[in-house]
Design goal:
Layout (H helix, E strand, L loop, with lengths): L1 H27 L5 H18 L6 H24 L3
Length: 84
């Protein structure tokens, strides 16, 4: 029973990211895979974490900046996969 619940939740997650990938495909006018959509969402979350909480300390902003850099590099790598 527990395994069925886990599989069901995983299918729902893939469905959500498939819808997000379809949205990005329309927005960017190119095919976007689920893997690429996850990288784009990760980069957007990192950007929000970097910009919005402006009153937090240096350590937080440093970690958020590192996360943002890694996310953007990963996003760039993932988006180039479809062009190869």
């Amino acid at each position: 029973m527990n395994n069925e619940t886990t599989v069901g939740k995983n299918m729902q997650t893939v469905g959500v990211f498939a819808m997000i990938a379809a949205y990005y495909s329309r927005l960017l006018e190119q095919d976007v895979t689920v893997r690429q959509a996850k990288a784009l969402v990760n980069a957007q979350c990192a950007f929000v974490a970097l910009v919005l909480p402006c009153d937090l300390g240096f350590v937080y902003h440093s970690l958020a900046f590192i996360w943002f850099l890694v996310a953007v590099l990963q996003c760039k790598e993932r988006m180039n996969e479809s062009q190869d």
